[in-house]
Amino acid sequence: MVLCRKYFYLLIFVLLHFSLIGQSPGIPATDYEGNIYNSVIIGNQTWLTENLKSLHYCDGTEIPDVVSYNNDENLANIYGRLYTWDAAMNGSTDVSSRGACPCGWHVPSDKEWKELENFLGGANITGGKMKEIGTTHWKTPNTGADNSSGLSFLPGGEYDAHYNPNKFSLINEYAVLWTSTEVNSLKARERYLAYNDAKSSIYDWYKTMKYSVRCIMDTATAAIDNNRESIPNSFSLKQNYPNPFNPNTLITYHLPIADEVNISVYNALGNKVCELYNGKQTAGTHTIVFSANDLPSGFYYYKLKSDNNYTVKRSLLLK
Predict the structure, then answer these.
(1) Region label for 133, one of left (φ > 0), alpha (ψ between -120 and 50) or beta (otherwise)
(2) Residue 215's closest CA among 4, 30, 74?
(3) CB-based contact 86:180 (threshold 8 Å)
(4) pLDDT tens string 5-24
């Protein structure tokens, strides 16, 4: 019982921390190789909190032109890998393309970056709110860094494949990230954060450069909020009842057509604790009973996914 209480207080601390800055922890993503990435919900967007390090696209196809900094796998585990724009986009020029991101996620567009920057107070200060604090990975002085966004951006540098000689540079100094926005046949838009600046900056540069990739969830409206719900086109979801869990709750939703449905539950740390349903369901209204008798008190999320659409709910379980 003491351990359960300690766990509960830890979850409450995490919740209060994110509530103070307006963000919430999101559900994790998993790439083809099994790498697990944490995420954070910021306004109406959900972003990964780590740079992509996948060597394969979502369908298992190998990603070309991808490297780790200095070809060092240890650095890839910290900073992620570096991708050309074409590799990051999987050959597409569609701004909503998944590209190299895990299934259910995509490379953020310039418009989505602007939405993030505006939510965090504007581009002039957003860089500081995005950067990991301290100088363990960032070069001194790491200007303005407070990581209040929870995004924990790291300075993974770049690989210059445009100018000769090709070379790695800027690690510990710059986080350089591709957007999905194409400028012309040779260039695309990037975002970068600097060790000596609190800004989030824009630059249009050659697609052959190799930069970091940070992914955003496909459904930007899948924000976790106790007072509203995200309703994708493929189904409608009624508020689970009761909320908080009691410790049982009824999850009721309506499918306009027969569909594949998956309902899974995650704890506040992003770990999947159980799967409530996974399979084909007929059109109509369905109710799933979630019994939380075996779970300790704390915050939990359940994700209801129907084909490529999903919604996420948060609830507090008290015993």
Answers:
(1) beta
(2) 30
(3) no
(4) 333 333 333 343 443 344 67
Joined together, the tokens standing for residue 273 give 């604790």
The answer to whether 83 touches 65, Cβ cutoff 8 Å, is yes
- Give the Cβ contact number of residue 67 at 10 Å: 16
Q: Which of 73, 30, 32, 76 is nearest to 53 (CA)?
A: 76
CATH 2.60.40.2550 assigned to 1-23+224-319: yes
Measured CA distances, 82 to 79, 142, 202, 204, 300 (Å): 9, 22, 18, 17, 34
Average pLDDT over residues 294-301: 70
SS3 (DSSP) at 158: strand
Break the chain into its structural domains and give their ranges. 1-23+224-319, 27-217
pTM: 0.65
Q: Does residue 305 have a pLDDT over 60?
A: yes
